Amino acid sequence: MQQLFDPDDAPELRREKAFIFGSAPKLAGDFLRAGRETRMSRASKDASVAEDIAHVWARGWTVLDAVINAMEQSCALMFTRSEVFDDHADVREALLLLQSATTLTLREISELLRAGYLSGAAARWRALHETAVTAVVVAEGGPSIARRYIDHGVATQLLRLEAFYQQPHPDAPPAAERAERMQLVADLIAKHTIPGETVSFRRPYAWATPVMPARAKDGKHLEPNFTRLEAAAGQIDMRLLVQHGAHGHVHNDAGAVRTAVLKDGNLLLAGPRSDEVQTVAIPALRTIVVAAAATHLGFEPQLDEFGRLISLTGAAIADLAATGVQAFESVHRSSQMLF
Question: What single-letter DSSP state applies at residue 225?
Answer without folding.
Answer: -
